[in-house]
Amino acid sequence: MSASSSGQHKYACSTCARRKIKCDKADPCSNCSKAEVQCLYEEHPPPRPRKRAADEDLIARLGAYEGLLRDNNIDFSHLSHSWISSDMQGKLKHSMSGSESPSLTPSTNNLATSKDSHVDNGSAEWERGGSTSHKLHPEPGQIYRLWQQFVEAVNPLIKIVHVPTMQQQILEASWDLENISPPLAGLMFSIYSLAVISLSSAQCEATYGEPRPTLITRYRVAALSALIAADFLTTKDLQLLTAFALFLLTDPDSEFTSSLTPTAVRIGQKMGLHKPSHPKVSFFESEMRIRLWWQLNALDSRARGSHVPGMRPPALVEFGDIRVPLNINDADLHPDMTEPPTEHIGPTEMTCWLRHSSASLRVFEGISNTPEKSKRVLEMEDALIDKLESIYHERFLQYLDLNIPLHALSNAMAILASSRLRYMAHHPRFRAVTHDGAVYMRKEEGDLAFNSAVTSLEKLQIGEQSQYSRHLFTHISSTFKLETNVYIISELRRRFSGERVEMAWKLVQDFFNEYQELLNDEQNSFFVALGEITLDAWEARRRYFQNHGQEIMEYSPLPRFIELLWNKQQLRNGQNLQVAAMLDSQNLDTFELPDVHDVNFDWESWSSFWRF
User: Fold this and answer.
1) Per-residue pLDDT tens for 62-86?
2) Which residue of 205, 297, 477, 592 is surrounded by the most CB atoms within 10 Å?
3) Which residue intervals define the domain Zn(2)-C6 fungal-type in the entry (predicted)?
4) What CA–CA distance (Å, rounded) separates 93 from 578?
5) Which residues pair with 433 in a beta bridge?
6) Burial 312-343 (b: 16+ CB within 10 A, else e)
7) Picking from 126-140, 349-363, 481-495, which range would have the lowest pLDDT averaged per residue?
């Protein structure tokens, strides 16, 4: 507070302002002098900011969009008004285009966080009504090939695009690329991205003549640019929200997608996807809205599980009052239809989605992740999983022909879902720990957990080796695969023979062959520790056969990965390395996987593995 030493003040004094009387603004004012009170003048608050003009609002919106591009490591500083092929495209690291080995973690193959993804990011541009945006599309012939690849390898797993309708739109648009709307462009670029992602590097190079990472980055950035041009964050357009969902599916395990997925769900709620459609909405649109809502929630569940350890999938109350999509083929749907078609009994194009239902959601919701489960809780969870298996069998498993690739995949994914749940329900980490740190389980329960773990990895492998887009399985095949293999290896120290044991060793061998860093990275303490416990399990197996009068080499040849682990162990022992210290469970929290920024892995649960 302050007062002027001379002259009049600009505003009334505090006393006059509070009493709401006229002030002569002198120092002191006449009213305060008459009342014999202190006359104080306060600094007037700054004026309220005027309402921003339309151009300032546009600048603010552009700033928000630029922030999104920066978060996605997209360099937009040198965008021009024309498409210029970058010489840097040919200088992408060989590891991006030539290596097909997956990563132990979701982040290694992330499209949004790849070390080299910035190389081509500045190549794409979308201007509202611009004259050069059509140059970002491939040639019409390539557009059709990409569309067919999407239909065959990606769409059966997501089913949010009506193939007959979309195919007609794409064919028409491919011959008039200059006049495509941003929503349709976003949809097409997302489809291109998903199609390329489903190809191997060799297939992509042979078919399209460019490195796979270059095309993925180009089409993803173009898709994001088109979405921004269409104001995707404020949309109520079904096609644009579908394009947004497809874009998120191009890199479903990235931090970028994890942050934007709840936004897509909120947009869906604003559009009313979580409740029955208005009677004036056509049946065709209503069915596509239902499919999209289920996919958005599946993506949300995936993001929660991948990036927030211990976070549960959306509760039924969050999901809304919406039925499961009908068991029909795309040919049964038409934009002009007024009545719902008759549902099929048996497999359809929706077969892979038939495992999703409100009943199955209730089962997943009933599985507890709390420690120290009681016998009653376990019995209740087993009953729920039995119910889930019954639902799957009644709805579609009994009708499948496993010689048909989509049927074989659907069967594997259904069995994977139930066996994974049973493995999680019976895992030793959820048992009470005694005062000496031990965990006790009945043999039947231990066998059930082990068999469920082996079955889970077995069925996951079927999915990964199928003709369908592998990246849609990575949320299962990253931390889950690593965690489950550690559990199986630990169990193999006391399980020596039998059909499931042989299958377990085959899966462990495939695991080490797939992730060569487990064998080659001597600097990673965790990998060294995992190799040591694997050798312990193999040595226990060798002694078992020796005690039964049979050499293990007669029963099971020495795998190459065991030989490599053994040689590295001998080398370390010769250098007096204290490997035993690496196995101390208290040190597990400090282990880091290579090239990982934040795997959000529950390291606390890892410590329990080493007890068994």
Assistant:
1) 677 677 667 666 665 544 333 333 3
2) 297
3) 12-41
4) 37
5) 439
6) ebbeeeebbebebbbbbebebbeeeeeeeeee
7) 126-140
183 confidence band (pLDDT: 50, 70, 90): very high
* 250's tokens: 């191009």
pTM, full prediction:
0.70
Pair 612, 428: CB distance under 8 Å: yes
User: How far is the C-alpha of 190 from the C-alpha of 264, rounded, in Å?
Assistant: 15
Tokens of 559: 């795998």
**Could you tell me the residue ranges of all domains in the chain?**
1-45, 345-466, 478-612
Helix axes 140-153, 163-174, angle to 10 degrees: 160
Distance CA 337, CA 284 (A): 7
Number of C-beta neighbours around residue 563 at 10 A: 10
**Sequential DSSP letters for 351-382:** GGGTT--HHHHHHHHH----SS--HHHHHHHH
* Least confident range of 181-185, 256-260, 448-452: 256-260
Q: List residues bridging with 439 in a β-sheet.
A: 433
Specify the pLDDT at position 267. 95
Dig out the tokens for 481 from the structure: 């695969």
- Reply yes or no on whether the pLDDT at 414 is more than 80: yes
What are the percentages of helix, strand and coil residues in the chain, rounded to 5? 60, 0, 40
> How many residues are present in the chain?
612
Domain 1-45 listed as CATH 4.10.240.10:
yes
> Which tokens hold the place of 437?
């740190």
- Separation CA 456–CA 173 (nearest Å): 43
Largest CA distance in the chain: 116
pLDDT at 314 over 50: yes
Measured CA to CA, the distance from residue 93 to residue 115 in angstroms comes to: 10
CA distance 486 to 70: 37
Lowest mean pLDDT among 29-33, 55-59, 406-410, 448-452: 55-59
